[in-house]
């Protein structure tokens, strides 16, 4: 068996024609839907980027136990499971620079080989000691270029952008070319997995110029392609410009996806190669008056994501829809199932191959969220977003880890000073783990950097209110979903404080 796994970042489901999007033609995503099963109720798990990838690699949620961080020594990652079970060769092609920061340790090394293309977002790629700060202040909108030079500043993007003068120099173009080279080189081989992982259409929304054709706006200011998270107070013409730049980048993703589909068509690979296409999460582009992710509630625009799945043994599923409730953690056991590899006992995701054969439920509900934020629960009809019950009554949360690093930094001394050993959990292979208190004023605390907005418990009926415009007053449904949430948290071995924080200790018992 052979598998191509394509992972985009921040690919909005509702922007794709296959999911009813009408803002922009996406002909190659339409082609993909015609050749695969399209999943209509696919959801995120742990957020944002690297927590989502840990879910993908391990088949279980991690946001209940720690924030953004590396793979852990006890994690079973699907490339290693495949190599041990059947000698399957895995190759990663990516421009997702978070793999190569402190908080991405351990991910790319699990593959048999990998290629990394530079220059996305804050990737510290080209050395420029004296950048032209005054010129850039006139070139870029002040909400995205503020002159900061600290490790979390946007400055590296402006350095990298000047290296991308031709379309072929864009990371998306380089990644796609490398993926096609791997496919051609290994066209006659069997038992391999190619993971093509594209940072686009994640912000900043910088696409080759031709993709802005047909997307005019009335905006006449400096470059505006990187939205500020939250409620930045953009004028209508600024919002239009940001959306147009996102759509231009989506159009570029669509065209380059088409080059991969062209290879599938030309080589007849549909008959012997599986294909999975998905994303880690979506992004708010002004919906609910918010931009970005992390800070606002995880509305459907962020949490409800696309998934396309083709398997040559289920050719009759091409062009069909699947209504089973699924989520990110299901991709790991699905990948193992494609190669006939055993699924480790701690995995909580479900293989989706049976859903290709028969669209039947695989679970009662899903939970998803970000460490320190709400825990959210969806049963396919209702979405329940639960926050701590009372402001000021915050329960002490802890990171459970053997890898105490954040996105771009080590844990600070104040975070390590009260370290204890805890566990082991059922998924840590008998290893006890560090139990580190969440320190509110730690520089790398995600909630410190991105304070939560509109942090109110809410229930939505997605059948009658798919846009989540009005919270539902239905106490009985809220109690039922709280009980479901608690059972799903227990399935993931959530620590005691996770229940106490949300007032769930006795719910559903």
TrEMBL record:
<dbReference type="InterPro" id="IPR017850">
    <property type="entry name" value="Alkaline_phosphatase_core_sf"/>
</dbReference>
<dbReference type="Pfam" id="PF00884">
    <property type="entry name" value="Sulfatase"/>
</dbReference>
<feature type="domain" description="Sulfatase N-terminal">
    <location>
        <begin position="3"/>
        <end position="340"/>
    </location>
</feature>
<dbReference type="InterPro" id="IPR000917">
    <property type="entry name" value="Sulfatase_N"/>
</dbReference>
<keyword id="KW-0479">Metal-binding</keyword>
<protein>
    <submittedName>
        <fullName>Sulfatase</fullName>
    </submittedName>
</protein>
<keyword id="KW-0378">Hydrolase</keyword>
